[in-house]
Amino acid sequence: MTQWLNKLRKGVGRKLAAVHRWNAWMIAFLALSGLILPWGAWREILGAGRVWLKWLHVGVGLALLLPVLYYLLLAGKHWSLLKGRPAQKWNVGIVLLIMTGWFLSGIVLWQFRAFGPRWSNTALTIHDAFTWIGLPYMIYHSVTRTRWLKETHRRSVRTDRPAQQSAGSSPSATEPLYTRRAFLRSAIGAGFAIALGPSFVKWLATSFSADGNVEDLLQKDGNHLVPAPQPAADSLPPVGGGSKGMFRIYTVTPIPEFDNSNWSFTVDGLVRKTLKWNWEEFVKLTRTVQVSNFHCVTGWSVYNNTWEGIPLRHLLEQAGVQSAAQTVKFYSGDGVYTDSLTMKQAQMDDIMVAVMLDGKPIPSDLGGPVRLVVPQMYTYKSVKWLNRIELIAEDHVGYWEERGYDKDAWLPDAKRT
Ligand SMILES: Nc1nc2c(c(=O)[nH]1)N[C@H]1C(S)=C(S)[C@@H](COP(=O)(O)O)O[C@H]1N2
Ligand SMILES: [Mo]
């Protein structure tokens, strides 16, 4: 009977070990890629590689189903092996729960178009939450189970036994060794708590407080252009009631800084009249106010933004579009980022060359002094630090589209007019 059990233990044990190893490597990859993907500095470094990394992240995430399903086949036997070891049972449960949370929210983020922004937004919050809880948990788990710690443990256990070959070592060595292991465990735990605790609390605070962050951003001295634009009555206080949510600051270059000496705005290309303004002139153009939502393809949204600026249509009318023009190309003052709209899309009423957000000048972090806002499309279309609009006869593939983003940026519920 015991022989049979030992055999089973060995066979299942080997399979379980393999599942565990695969699972660990996949999660390590997902953790690393998952941390890199939203990380600002890596946007600049990776470029097109970022889109590949995203697909790898999705692919490995889906493939995680394989070891999990395989484990579930063995789970019954594993469970009986864990008899009398509640801590290990808990560990299995927690790990499975974390992976389920990651998996389900990951599916929604992957299929963001099918689910729409509200779902994506929730899924991203959940994906993040599971990361900030699950990752420290799994790192702790793997660090405290590394071989050298086990070795320490085994040695301490071995010296517990009397009359062993290690007779040379003094018996008093037992205590310190075991204590050292316990000490290391708590030290590592405390290290994680100190390193990750504050960022976790901050994350909690920003996710669950409605609009603190936008206000903070707007408080910061946005840009150095004078005179500051004066808000319209609808802008201050903002008719939208103030932005709800948190912008993630995205840029593929260092954030460019402008002042009156190096800023200008140009409309050129296939126009009847090239237009060029300096800031003092630009700030006098007639502006309108709109309230719209802001949806990034990576899942986050900011609702009820009150933007004040010049409707794109007005600028195009003023310049006079030549009939050969097919595409409106937008240039960022960062010198790198561009995007485009078809001439037909560019006629939509709500596209805005925005100067203010919630009654304040747009801070440079959010693309000020002037950014594009295309409310009916995912916001990679909303070019930050916009300083030139060119009408061209051919097509233009934008920065992220060249690197794998869909040319079709329409939101699922877009009216398209
Ligand atoms: N110049 C420039 N414009 C840009 C980007 C960028 O990296 N550079 N990122 C785009 C993307 S993908 C998004 S989601 C929004 C983010 O705007 P925010 O940084 O103000 O939150 O800006 C868009 N416009
Ligand atoms: Mo985005």
Automatic annotation (TrEMBL):
Residues 254-400 form the Oxidoreductase molybdopterin-binding domain. It holds the Pfam family Oxidored_molyb. The chain crosses the membrane at residues 21-40, 52-73, 94-113, 119-140, 182-205. This is Molybdopterin-dependent oxidoreductase. Keywords: Membrane, Transmembrane, Transmembrane helix. Residues 162-173 have a biased composition (Low complexity). Signal peptide: none annotated. Residues 154-174 are annotated as: Disordered.
